[in-house]
Design a protein that fits this description.
This protein has about 400 residues and is an alpha/beta fold. It folds into 3 domains: about 5-110 and about 240-305, FAD/NAD(P)-binding domain (3-Layer(bba) Sandwich), CATH 3.50.50; about 110-235, 3-Layer(bba) Sandwich (FAD/NAD(P)-binding domain), CATH 3.50.50.60; about 330-385, Enolase-like, domain 1 (2-Layer Sandwich). The protein is built from 9 helices and 25 strands. The protein has helices at about 10-25, 55-60, 65-70, 130-140, 155-165, 185-200, 245-250, 295-305, 375-385; strands at about 5, 30, 75, 80-85, 90, 95-100, 100-105, 110, 145-150, 170-175, 205, 210-215, 220-225, 230, 235, 240-245, 260, 270-275, 280-285, 285-290, 320-325, 330-335, 345-350, 355-360, 365-370. The strands form 7 sheets. Strands 3-2-1-7-18 form a 5-stranded parallel sheet, with helices on one face. A 5-stranded antiparallel sheet has the order 21-22-25-24-23, sandwiched between helices. A 4-stranded parallel sheet has the order 11-10-9-15, with helices on one face.
């Protein structure tokens, strides 16, 4: 019997494997990964410094343990070289394997900025557990109160800024926007987060970008496009991720920003599926990247059923994004259209809580944000989506 093969041991790959094994106990399951294959929660990478957690503490199960739990063959240290969708085989550094069904859970890669300077290659990114371990090692080599420049004030950049400042490092955030979380949050929440981070000691250089990073002895000199400059011990890029499409392109799969999948997670090749950060999902408003945990879990459950002979659509329901900034915890439901299009944010203050609702041009609530967030308030706001109500029981 040919196996189901999953490429990738991130949250997407392992979640799908677990859901598949709930439904099918006997079909051979191969999981291929270029790294050690340990299970960890990737969202934890951006808020583990202040807790003093090393990489080994974030890995909750080894590849050996996962293989036993899933009754799977997990091949670690194995690079996938090519997928042949005609022959239905996967060529790897450890041999070539036929498949019955194939799932791509290859994730995303950090966006690399065009930065000049003799230390441009020293700009770090943290996209996996090995990146995290290396970054912690570099910080440990500097000691307490390291000067860290973070490129990007989006979700990951803000979480790292909050986390590293909480670990008593001197953090400067550099971003072309004029406020943190500008693409996701209402202005009132952005400003609230900026104030909370500033209270932690975070400094901001908004409205500009980094042009050069040069090394001068033990110091990195960071030059900005607006003429300013600063010194840092480390530079961390957190400007975003781009779906890893290398295998998909080589295999001739249909891809836009991600690997395009139909409502059941199928790619353009028969018996090949994709999910997680590498996938571009079909939604009511077109195809979209959904690099969040909730859509990943939903997709994994649906694809597992389809793999076992019960074709199931991925029902992507609205789910808020939880921003893990402990100094100013937020829950965000970004509107499906740009705030500059045909709607507006409406802010309400309830004692210490800020609630912002986004209404489109027809007066329908299609997005929200709340800080500090909690589960009860999230549920109330989720129930308001699609309505014209403007009141919230505090």
């Amino acid at each position: 019997m040919k196996p189901v093969i999953i490429i990738g041991t991130g949250l997407a790959g392992y979640t799908l494997a677990r859901e598949f094994r709930k439904l099918d106990k006997t079909t051979p399951l191969f999981i291929l990964t270029a790294d050690e294959g340990g299970f960890y929660s990737k969202p934890m990478l951006s808020n583990a410094f202040a807790q003093g957690k090393g990489a080994d503490q974030l890995v909750t199960q080894s590849a050996v343990q996962m293989a036993a739990q899933l009754s799977a063959t997990i091949m670690t240290g194995t690079r996938v070289l090519r997928v042949d969708t005609q022959e239905k085989s996967v060529e790897t550094s450890s041999g070539t394997f036929p498949y019955d069904k194939l799932v791509l859970a290859t994730g995303a890669q950090p966006i690399r900025l065009a930065i000049n300077g003799d230390a441009a290659r020293e700009v770090a990114s943290v996209n996996n557990i090995n990146d995290y371990a290396l970054f912690r090692k570099r910080i440990a080599g500097i000691g307490n109160h390291a000067r860290i420049a973070i490129l990007g004030a989006g979700l990951i950049g803000c979480e790292f800024a909050d986390d590293l400042a909480g670990a008593r490092h001197a953090v400067t955030v550099i971003a072309p926007n004029e406020r943190p979380l500008a693409a996701l949050a209402a202005p009132a929440l952005s400003h609230g987060l900026g104030a909370a981070l500033a209270q932690r000691g975070v400094q901001f250089c908004f409205g500009t970008t980094v042009t050069r990073v040069d090394r001068r002895n033990d110091t990195l000199c960071v030059a900005l496009a607006d003429g300013r400059s600063l010194e840092a011990d480390l530079v961390l890029s957190a400007v975003g991720l781009r779906p890893d499409l290398r295998l998909a392109h080589a295999a001739g799969l249909h891809a836009g920003r991600g690997i395009v999948v139909d409502p059941q997670g199928r790619t353009s090749a028969p018996d090949v599926f994709a999910l997680g950060d590498c996938a571009e999902y079909t939604t009511d408003s077109g195809t979209r990247l959904l690099p969040y945990v909730a859509p990943l879990m939903t997709a994994a459950r649906a694809i597992a059923r389809t793999l076992t002979g019960e074709p199931t659509d991925i029902e992507l329901k609205p789910s808020p994004v939880i921003v893990k900034t402990l100094s100013f915890p937020l829950a965000l439901m970004p509107p499906p259209v740009s705030p500059k299009a045909d709607g507006a944010w409406h802010e309400t203050q309830y004692s210490e809580r800020i609630v912002c609702r986004y209404y489109n041009g027809e007066g329908t609530m299609v997005g929200f944000g709340v800080a500090p967030q909690d589960a009860n308030i999230r549920q109330v706001l989720m129930a308001e989506l699609g309505s014209n109500r403007v009141s919230l029981a505090a």
